[in-house]
Amino acid sequence: MIEPPLIRVEGLVKRFGPFTALNGVNLDIYRGEVHALLGDNGAGKSTLIRLLSGFHRPNEGQIFVGGHPVDFRSPRDATRAGIGTVYQELALNPLMSVTRNFFMGRELSVGPKPFGFLRMNEMNRITHNEMIKIGINISDPGQAVGTMSGGQRQTLAIARAIYFGAKVLILDEPTSALGQRQQMEVLKTIVRVRERGDIAIIFITHNELHSKLVADRFTFMALGEVIGRGSNSELAGDEIRRLMSGGTAINDLAFELESARKQV
Ligand SMILES: Nc1ncnc2c1ncn2[C@@H]1O[C@H](COP(=O)(O)OP(=O)(O)OP(=O)(O)O)[C@@H](O)[C@H]1O
Ligand SMILES: [Mg+2]
C-alpha cells in the first residue's frame, strides 16, 4: 500500500479583503523529505504556512493530514495534529534557561499544578539528551538561552518541536538572520533530522544554495500560485534561480525579443 502524504493541500485559497494571497495551491509533503518552498517576496509562502499552522483558515480548499481532512481553528489544533512551526522569532525567552525554554508551558512536575514541584533534574536530563541527539552538546542546560548562538537557538526550537510530537517541521527562513557559520549549524540540524527518516521538513528560504544543499524536492510559488516543482536531481541552479524570481530570467526576455524580431 502506498503511504498517503503526511500533508496534502488541495486547492487552497486565502483572501485578505479584496486581495487574493493564495489562489488555488496544491502541495504534497511526504514523510522523511526536506521540501523547499521557494518564491519571491509576497509569493504567499508565509500565508500558506499560516494556514498549515492554524493561524488562518482558508476561504476555499482542504488540508489533509495523514490522509484525513482537518480544519484547524487555532495553532493548538495544528500542533496536536503533529505540525510544528519554527518561526524566525523562535518564541524563546533569552533570560530563561535552555531547559525552561525547552519545556515552556509543558513542565514536568510532582503534585498538582500550579503548586507542584518542578522535576528540574529530569527536565535537565531530557533537554541535554534531546540536544545531543540533534548534534549540540550543551554542557549546562541551566545556562540562559541568551548565551547560545543564533544557530543553536534555532536547533533548540527544532529539538523542542520534535520532542513534543511534530511529524512535520515547518522552518520559515531559519537561516536568513544568521551569519555563515551559524547558517551551517542550522543546515546540519536539518540534515540530522532528515536522517531520522520519520519527519518531514518544509524549508522556506531565499537562499538557492541552501535549498540545493539540503532539499529533496522543490515547490516554487509566485503571486499566490505554484509555478513549478521538481526534485533536487531534476533542477539545475539557474532553473532554481529563474523559478525563484517568479519564472522570468534575462534569457527568457532575450528569447521573447528574438521571436518578436523574427515576426517583422
Ligand atoms: N494579514 C494580511 N492582510 C493583508 N494582506 C496580507 C496579509 N498577510 C499577507 N498578505 C499579503 O499576501 C501576500 C503574500 O504574503 P506572504 O507573506 O505570504 O509572502 P511570502 O512569500 O512569505 O513573502 P516573503 O518572502 O517576503 O516572506 C503579500 O502581498 C502580503 O502583503
Ligand atoms: Mg514570508
UniProtKB/TrEMBL annotation:
Record-linked SUPFAM superfamilies: P-loop containing nucleoside triphosphate hydrolases
InterPro entries assigned to the protein according to its UniProt record, in alphabetical order: AAA+_ATPase, ABC_carbohydrate_import_ATPase, ABC_transporter-like_ATP-bd, P-loop_NTPase
Domain (ABC transporter) ranges: 7-248
Top-rank lineage group of the source organism: Bacteria
Keywords of the record: ATP-binding, Nucleotide-binding, Sugar transport, Transport
UniProt keyword Ribonucleoprotein present: no
GO molecular function, one term: ATP binding
Protein name: ABC-type sugar transport system, ATPase component
Organism: Rhizobium leguminosarum bv. trifolii WSM597
